[in-house]
Design brief:
Number of domains: 2
Number of strands: 25
Number of helices: 12
Strand content: 15-25%
Radius of gyration: 22 Å
Shape: globular
Structural class: alpha/beta
């Protein structure tokens, strides 16, 4: 085993020549999967190199400006979309990945989902009993606890009020935070380090254990021969232009791809890794959402306080693949908010002037439709995703119910989703949402939870990854992110990604003969 280096972050700006490195394992990505694996393997005594395409941005550098934050912390400035432009995918691209820009909501995989996964994939220890201890350790590590009632802001309180008046169930959500002051800037990066993102939790521990992390380092190809991985060909990028600056080659007998459910399959497809199942990049689920906005008489100022603390899961069938939807609290800055509201020019400005009195809830679909990630000309990533008829009907049902919920909470006007131009003055106007012309409108959806494109399973003809997290037929190639989910999850994925990543790290350390098992 190679001598372990002192851990550090190497930014692209400090690299001015081509590099060639040796490691026991190279981890691609530093989000919920990559950071967990890097820490576990480094603590097990292995020499670890982490490649992160995005920049290293410390909490001192986070800003409240939406535009600047999107450009610095999100992939494609927050404008990555599917082929027809109906879906926008919000993904973090920075050290810490999407955990840096997520809302901090932390929910373990429901038992019904894990039971379904275990049965359908043939991986018995995916059942609840096999992951319970991991979820408990992760919850302690990142300080997961329900949001206190005193910190539920008016936007989320209106969701709870509307649900109660409709006799719908609602629940307070748990979050991974420590000492949260409720500044409301979760999506721009937590400026106080209260949110226990990978940036402030697992990445520092990986570095202290000796891992070296290269920021601004894009993995271009996984190298393999003779049925085993040999290394990674990467590029150091210029921070401002994202253009190639220098080459970076890493030789390692273990490669862990943890770049997310879009980038991981696209990297493996570009690398021409042989996939016996034909499922690499397929079975994409995203949990698409549509915002529904209500205007109230009194100020709400939903941008103050914790953005997401309440949801209603009454209409979500969390048995994997069974569909349904949740209605979730959330909020956004004025620029993002404005993009969801109807109108142009003076009319749009007039609507947006009510921003302080607006509340927002999101209808999040537990999609049964499956999309695909492809690699197009010039190695560009293509995302093919369109909800099937039954999913679209469920999403529109959720929009209608969310609009009614806001009216019952006291709204005197409701905007029923982007692009619909549906402005409802009262409950009587809900009939407009049932008309055929409304149901044919091309919805504009947002998603933050892509998954399933490198699915795990015991049968190589029906899965991409084996029960240990290793690519079927390629020794030393592991995947550790939401792409390995054997089916739809239905809740925010961070804790499940972390649990499966820890499981994969344990298998890697054992097979590598590390001096001690990872915690």
């Amino acid at each position: 085993m190679s001598a372990r280096p002192s851990g550090r972050i190497v930014e692209g700006s400090s690299v001015d020549r081509d590099l060639s490195l040796d490691a026991d394992a190279c981890v691609i990505g530093s989000g919920a999967g990559g950071a967990v694996v890097a820490r576990a393997l480094a603590e097990a005594g292995m020499k670890i190199v982490v490649l992160e395409e995005g920049p290293y941005v410390s909490s001192r550098e986070f800003v409240s400006d939406e535009g600047e934050s999107r450009l610095r912390l999100y992939r494609d400035g927050g404008f990555r979309g599917n082929a027809d432009g109906s879906l926008v995918l919000l993904e973090g691209r920075c050290v810490g990945g999407s955990t840096v820009v997520g809302l901090g909501t932390a929910i373990p995989a429901p038992g019904e989902v894990l039971d379904h996964w275990a049965r359908s994939s043939g991986v018995a220890d995916l059942a609840p009993a096999g992951l319970a201890d991991r979820f408990a350790r992760i919850a302690r590590e990142i300080s997961v606890a329900p949001v206190p009632d005193t910190m539920i802001n008016p936007n989320n309180a209106l969701l709870r009020r509307g649900a109660a008046r409709l006799r719908l169930s609602s629940d307070v959500l748990a979050r991974a935070v420590r000492g949260c002051a409720g500044c409301g800037r979760c999506a721009e990066g937590c400026p106080t380090d209260a949110k226990r993102s990978m940036l402030v939790s697992y990445v520092p521990k990986a570095l202290r254990a000796g891992a070296t992390l290269y920021a601004d380092a894009r993995a271009d190809a996984v190298l393999f021969s003779g049925g085993a991985v040999r290394g990674v060909r990467a590029a150091i990028l210029e921070r401002a232009t994202r253009r190639r600056k220098c080459s970076l080659d890493v030789r390692a007998p273990v490669i862990v791809v943890a770049a997310g459910a879009i980038e991981s399959p696209s990297l493996l497809l570009r690398s021409h890794v042989p996939d016996r199942s034909g499922l690499l990049g397929k079975k994409l689920r995203v949990n698409p959402s549509v915002p529904v906005i209500g205007t109230f008489d009194s100020p709400i100022r939903g941008y103050r306080g914790i953005p997401q603390s309440v949801w209603s899961a009454q209409f979500a069938d969390l048995r994997a693949g069974k569909g349904g939807y949740t209605i979730e609290g959330g909020f956004a800055g004025p620029a993002t908010f404005g993009s969801t509201l109807p109108g142009y020019g003076v009319a749009h400005k007039r609507i947006l002037s009510r921003y302080n009195r607006m509340a927002l809830v999101s209808v999040v679909l537990q999609d049964r439709s499956a999309g695909e990630v492809r690699v197009g000309r010039g190695a560009t990533v293509e995302i093919r995703y369109e909800p099937r008829k039954e999913d679209r009907a469920k999403l529109l049902e959720g929009v209608r119910r969310a609009a009614l919920l806001l009216f019952r909470a006291g709204a005197h006007e409701v905007f029923a989703g982007p692009r619909t131009n549906a402005i409802l003055a009262d409950e009587m106007d809900l009939v407009h949402l049932d008309r055929p012309e409304f149901r044919r409108i091309a919805l504009r959806m947002t998603a933050t939870r892509p998954q399933g494109t490198c699915r795990m399973g015991a049968d190589p003809s029906r899965s991409v990854i084996d029960p240990r997290g290793e690519f079927h037929g390629i020794k030393g190639l592991f995947v550790a992110d939401a792409s390995v989910f054997p089916g739809p999850l239905g809740v925010p994925p961070q804790m499940t990604v972390m649990a499966l990543a820890a499981r994969a790290a344990e298998a890697i350390a054992a097979s590598a003969g590390a001096r001690r098992s990872p915690a």
